[in-house]
Every structure is written in structure tokens, then in C-alpha cells.
UniProtKB/TrEMBL annotation:
Specifically methylates the cytosine at position 967 (m5C967) of 16S rRNA. It catalyses: cytidine(967) in 16S rRNA + S-adenosyl-L-methionine = 5-methylcytidine(967) in 16S rRNA + S-adenosyl-L-homocysteine + H(+). The active site is at 381 (nucleophile). It comes from Alkaliphilus serpentinus. InterPro entries: MeTrfase_RsmB-F_NOP2_cat, MeTrfase_RsmB-F_NOP2_dom, Nop2p, NusB-like_sf, NusB_RsmB_TIM44, RCMT, rRNA_ssu_MeTfrase_B, RsmB-like_ferredoxin. This is 16S rRNA (cytosine(967)-C(5))-methyltransferase. One of its GO terms (molecular function) is rRNA methyltransferase activity. It is found in: Cytoplasm. It holds the Pfam family NusB. It is an enzyme of class 2 (transferase). One of its GO terms (biological process) is regulation of DNA-templated transcription. S-adenosyl-L-methionine binds at residues 259-265, 283, 328. PANTHER family: NOP2 YEAST -RELATED NOL1/NOP2/FMU SUN DOMAIN-CONTAINING (PTHR22807), RIBOSOMAL RNA SMALL SUBUNIT METHYLTRANSFERASE B-RELATED (PTHR22807:SF53). Its EC number is 2.1.1.176. The gene is rsmB.
């Protein structure tokens, strides 16, 4: 299997079967014996095409006699793959990029070889005639095609942020995310994990903000690592680690995590509680709760009880019972596009409107589970203020017995960057983290 064929198969899974990019790519790499070089090239091709898909399609549309929607799905992906190499990868000879797409078409979409060859050679010949919209004529369309984000998303960002910040976000969304792991201090010390990973040739730094957060430099596949299998580490972005730190649970607490799967934050909460107390980890999807259980087991946590429960329903049995509650709400994911570029092409503005209603309901129910003096964290991995500040502000306006805690003041020692607001909004790539929103509220009476 060549890297290009692997990329074709992964992109097909994402495009046609709606697979998640990280899962489809990991599966392809696990099931086929790629060399490290091929693995790197395969990853580059998959993410390169996904990140630039709208731009690639816009150009293909200018040179194809067939409408994009009518092109065989494999053929369209093969054209995108070759075009990405022609436009973005200097070191690849155009003939190699085109020839391998044509060759692969003979296996995956037989009758399209001539068409693929024709479109690609046409683009190669007339590269100078490619037309893109100008910034001055139409800023949203220019940004949308330059950074391959749907127009509605660019317009949403432009509504909330100024053009230069919007462009920074769009650019960051097509950038490479940092690779963080959390050391599971229930099973291993940070020093030991550092030593054993360095011994295996990894370049690792401490985050400088959170003891258990390590950042791994360079392209690395961690899936087969002993440290991961034994539960000494959990792959988790730094911003995601901030959530349990800000919830700040204590040993012996009763904590409810209402949207817990796959359990990254639940198991971090358990770690901070030193595996003492009780965590009720809920989710609407039973199959995902199995991941919470298996992650808990791997990490040596035994204080988590999982339970299928829809957060938009109120559980009368839990009213006033919890010391801490986490609502890591289902959201549009606009803060983690660098990790899952397919989010750009799947989410719609209507999705966001529906999500905000659900988020508000889940938060309002979950807050009722708090004891007086207990605290709740509401977090998301989006940068859309409608899903974030707006949800929390609306809640506070309707519930005067709850009060916002100023995160920037209380937890400044482990928040990178310069943040002044009570509710913390991190943007992708800006402070070396994903785009997360974190707010914390205390029940006063
Ligand atoms: C952002 S993810 C949670 C990630 C998790 N906290 C972690 O750190 O691993 C949101 C979760 O909410 C779940 N979910 C979606 N709708 C829900 C609902 N109505 N009630 C409870 N959980 C829901 C999803 O299945 C998903 O697992």
C-alpha cells in the first residue's frame, strides 16, 4: 500500500462515509504496515487535502467539464490529492502526483482515468490562469476560499471578531496542533514518564503551567506506546486539561460529569481527587460510556460509576447533592478544527442554533445538582460566543443564587497567555492550545 493509496482510502471514508479524520487515519495506519516516512506522507496528504478542500474544489471547478457533484467520489478525491501536491508540495514532481492518481483510478474508479488525467494536465498547463476572488472585492468569499472555510462560518467569525483576528483564526485552523499528554500521576510520576519517553527518543517539554502536562515535539505516533497502554499517560490537549484543574475537585468529593465520554476529563478529575470519593459519569450514548469505563480501567481509576442519562432531563434524585459538576457540553467543535478539519464541512449555522438550546437546558439542569457552595464548570471546544458566553450569561440572568467565578484571577497561574476575563476563551493556536471555553459558577444559596 502506498501513502497515496492510503490517503485515498482515508479521505473516502471521511468524505463519503462521514468518518472522523483521526479515527479513519489511525485505523489505516494500524491495519497496514507503513514505513515512518510513508506514515508521515499519508498524514500530510490527508490533512493537507482536508484543510484545503474548498480551495481545491474551486480550482477543479474552473477546469472540469463535469460539475463537481457529478464526478465519481473516488475520482474527485484523486484529483484533489494530485492537485494538493501540485499546489502545496514543492518537492513532488508534478508527473509523479498526476501519474499515481491516474494509476489508482484504474483500481478504484476504472472509467475515470482519462478524465482525471485531462483535468490535472489542464490545470498544470494553465496554472497561471487560476482565478481566486480578491480581498478588496469580497472579503468573506476571499477568506472562505483562501482558508477553505464555508462562507457562513467566515461570516460568523466576522460578526464576532475583527477581520484580522478572524484571519488569524482561519490560518490557525489550517495549522498543526501541539501534541500534549497528561501524565496519570495515579500510576506514574512525571519524572519517570519524562525519563522513559526521552529514552525512546522523544523530545519532550513540561508545559510550564500544569505539572502533569507534557508536550511532545515532532511528528509522533503514540498509539503503540507502552506508557499509553499501561495507563501512564493520556493523550489530551492542554486546554482540555485546564477544565479539571479549574473545577478543582477535592479528595472525597461527589462529582457529576454530565457529558463524560470518552472520559478524558472524568479521569483527570479522578486523578486530582487521588482516586478518593465518587464520580458519576453520564452520557447520552451507552457505547461511548464503555470508553469511559475502559479508559478508567487503563488509568487505574475505580471511583467512576457510569450511567446512561440524557442531560436535557432533570434527575430529581440528585438535586443539591454534588460538590462539583462538570458540563463539558456537546458543541459545534469550532475550536478544534485543526484536529478535525472535516468539522468545517459538516457543521451548519442551524446546527449551532439547535446546540445552544440543548446546552442551555443541560447547564440549567446540571446546576441544580450542586450543594450550596458547590461549583460547576461549563466548558466547550468551540469559539462561538453563542454557545459559550451567551449560554452562561443567560443562565446567570435567570438564576440569581449562582455567581460567576473569575477564572483569570483565581487560576491565572496555570493559564497561558494574557487573559483578563472572568470566563476564559482560548482560541486555536494562539496560546499553544486548542480553542476551548471554560467558565466556573458557584451556587450561593
Ligand atoms: C465534548 S464531549 C465530552 C468529552 C468528555 N468530557 C471528555 O473529556 O472526554 C460531549 C459529550 O456529550 C455527549 N452528549 C451529547 N448530548 C448529550 C445529552 N443530551 N446528554 C448527555 N450527554 C450528551 C456526547 O455523547 C459526548 O460524549
Amino acid at each position: 500500500m502506498t501513502a497515496r493509496e492510503g490517503a485515498l482510502r482515508v479521505l473516502y471514508q471521511i468524505d463519503v462515509k462521514e468518518a472522523y479524520s483521526n479515527i479513519a487515519l489511525n485505523r489505516e495506519i494500524k491495519e497496514n504496515p507503513y514505513t515512518p516516512v510513508d506514515r508521515g506522507f499519508l498524514t500530510e496528504l490527508v490533512y493537507g487535502v482536508l484543510e484545503n478542500q474548498m480551495k481545491l474544489d474551486y480550482i477543479i471547478g474552473q477546469f472540469s467539464s463535469v460539475k463537481l457533484k457529478k464526478i465519481h467520489p473516488y475520482a474527485l478525491i484523486l484529483i484533489r490529492l494530485a492537485l494538493y501536491q501540485l499546489l502545496f508540495l514543492d518537492k513532488i514532481p508534478p508527473s509523479a502526483a498526476i501519474n499515481e492518481s491516474v494509476e489508482l483510478s484504474k483500481k478504484y474508479c476504472k472509467k475515470t482515468s482519462g478524465f482525471i488525467n485531462g483535468v490535472l494536465r489542464n490545470i498544470l498547463r494553465k496554472k497561471g490562469e487560476i482565478h481566486m476572488p480578491s480581498r478588496a472585492d469580497d472579503l468573506p468569499l476571499y477568506l472562505s476560499l483562501k482558508y477553505s472555510h464555508p462562507l457562513w462560518m467566515v461570516n460568523t467569525f466576522l460578526k464576532f471578531f475583527d477581520p484580522s483576528f478572524t484571519e488569524k483564526i482561519l490560518e490557525a485552523n489550517n495549522g498543526k496542533p501541539e501534541l500534549y499528554v497528561r501524565v496519570n500521576t495515579l500510576k506514574a510520576s512525571v519524572a519517570d514518564v519524562l525519563k522513559s519517553l526521552e529514552g525512546k527518543g522523544f523530545t519532550i517539554h513540561r508545559s510550564g503551567y500544569i505539572d502533569e502536562a507534557l508536550v511532545i515535539k515532532g511528528e509522533k505516533n503514540l498509539q503503540q506506546l507502552e506508557e499509553l497502554k499501561k495507563g501512564h499517560i493520556y493523550i489530551q490537549d492542554f486546554a482540555s486539561m485546564l477544565i479539571a484543574k479549574i473545577l478543582d475537585p477535592k479528595e472525597g468529593d461527589f462529582v457529576i460529569d454530565v457529558c463524560s465520554a470518552p472520559g478524558g476529563k472524568t479521569t483527570h478529575i479522578a486523578q486530582l481527587m487521588k482516586n478518593q470519593g465518587r464520580i458519576l459519569a453520564r452520557d447520552i450514548h451507552p457505547h461511548k460510556l464503555k470508553l469511559v469505563q475502559s479508559n478508567g480501567k487503563r488509568l487505574g481509576v475505580n471511583i467512576i460509576e457510569t450511567q446512561e442519562f440524557n442531560g436535557i432531563e432533570l434527575d430529581e434524585n440528585l438535586l443539591g447533592k454534588a460538590d462539583g459538576v462538570l458540563v463539558d457540553a456537546p458543541c459545534s467543535g469550532l475550536g478544534i478544527i485543526r484536529r478535525k478539519p472535516e468539522i468545517k464541512y459538516r457543521k451548519t449555522n442551524e446546527d449551532i442554533k439547535a446546540l445552544t438550546e440543548m446546552q442551555a437546558k443541560i447547564l440549567s439542569n446540571a446546576a441544580k445538582y450542586l450543594k450550596i457552595g458547590g461549583t460547576i464548570v461549563y466548558s466547550t471546544c468551540t469559539i462561538d460566543p453563542r454557545e459559550n458566553h451567551k449560554v452562561v450569561e443567560t443562565f446567570l440572568n435567570h438564576n440569581k443564587n449562582y455567581q460567576l467565578i473569575d477564572i483569570s484571577k483565581e487560576y491565572h497561574s496555570f493559564i497561558p497567555g494574557n487573559h483578563q476575563e472572568a470566563m476564559l476563551q482560548l482560541y486555536p493556536g494562539m496560546d499553544g492550545t486548542d480553542g476551548f471555553f471554560i467558565s466556573k459558577i458557584i451556587r450561593k444559596s
